[in-house]
Amino acid sequence: MTTIANSWAEFRNKVYKGERLPYEQERQVYLAFLAGITVARQHLATLSLLPENEAVLELERFDAEMRKTVDVMVLAEGDN
User: Which has the closest alpha carbon to 42: 52, 29, 56?
Assistant: First the structure.
């Protein structure tokens, strides 16, 4: 999970700085991360049914950060 989070942070920082990829490439990056989140969430669900599980909370925070970055991407696309 740390590797995914670090990779996403690097991508997010580039988006925030305006170092953009072509739209389709950004979309593919987002979908790949989303697929990773989905698989991780399913795996964590089998490990613990407790929503307070720290790994689940971390995953939720990461998911929220992804969504904020995508909002920035969408807003920037609208400006072009």
Answer: 56
